[in-house]
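re the bet — no i am not wrong, look at it urself. input seq straight from the record:
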Amino acid sequence: MPLNNLSNKQRFIRNFSLLLSSRVLTAVLTLLVNILLIKRLGTSIYGEFAFALTLSGYFLSIADTGLSPFGETEAAKHKSDINKIVEDISSARFLLSLISTVIIIFIGLLMFKDSPRQKSMLIVIAFLPLIYSSNFSWALRGIEKNHVILTTNLIGGLIYFLGVLLIVKNSKWYLTAVLLFLASNIITSAFQFGYIKKLIKKIKISFSYVSVKKTVKNSLPFGIFSWFSVLYISYPIVFLKIFSDNKNIGLYYITYKLMVFIFVIFNLTGNAFIPVISDAIKAKDNEKESKILSELIKFTYTFSIPVCFGGFVVSHNLIAELFGIKIIESALLLRMMIWAVIPVGISSALISYLMAKNAKKSLVKSAAFASITGFIFSIFLIKYLGVKGAAYSLNFIELIMAGGLIYFTYKIIKIKFDIINFIKVLAASAIMAYAVMLTHQKLILSIFIGMAVYATLSLILKTITKKDIKELRSLIVK
């Protein structure tokens, strides 16, 4: 059905449901892969793998330099200029990715001479930025072709999962695990490139310094924001590498992977939200902007709060059933880290709004403040509390980030916050968690009980209305 015939809420739900399906499927497969890896490689080698991915994350953000979010917002606002947008963004990403790949290889060769396993992992993972430069999910989100992202991510995720399942049998196969990770990204990017090429026919990669400089200059504020974000997210792993050991890195990283599985859902609300809010921004309709953003904030806390309460209650069962009793220490970490879901959900909504609004300075200031304060507190917490300190630092940093984004957003637009509805959501979540504790069932049944109790209470307390259900049903039928 044409997008013009959908309401803003239906467009948001349509975009969100496709992106959610894509990310959930790939996140499930990735989570299964990580479960296999930590069991087959062992906690220490898995920790080295986690460190290699974390370090490559720094250079992925440098290679991207904000080009993906900038390109997505530009594509959402100017769909008719998609050819030029894709060519400009692709050229800049390719050149920066090439530089990043070379730097990672040198880091592996020079800084990890005495750690051959870590060195070999870094040299192989160094090619990830170059591969990722051909990933066009940013453009597909901008032009609302989210079904393509769903299909390509599913194919790549399946290949990664099946490869690890069938090939990686023990710790001797650690390098194969890294190669399979790269292979899955190559296949995903290749399919997305093929689809974009059908729309554009020909993609020219320009090596013009002036052209690349102009594009990077426009995306740089988003890039600086991304750099700071990657920095503060990776502090726990980096400082665990300095003050602790690979085992604790492995324990933290596998718990964080569970958190990422949840974060993905709320990050996607922001991705789905950009094309919808962009129309209101383009029309200079402040009232509509406020209404749409307020609805998104309500949607975010309506689902993030019960996730926190529920996750806290089922954490022990979750870790035991997924990973076994050997790494049950992760259950305590999960109980601590699960509360980061609320600030992450709010941050995702506000980041998307500020990106669409082109409020570059606000994004950079928020991320810079979170990064600087997070650096200081992470060193202190991890040095003296170890892996528990890493969990505390994650919560602290995400709270600081959300606080900064709220401050800068309120300077631009008024958000309507229904305190009564918020209290109802808290009450429903607390009752749901208590009900799950009382029943004391296994993991899957506990989750279903929690969902049933929360859904019933939401309808009774009217935190989810009949109008919301009617719009969702109408979209599904259409």
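see?? Residues 286-323 form the longest helix (38 residues). told u. also Residues 6-417 form one domain. so pay up
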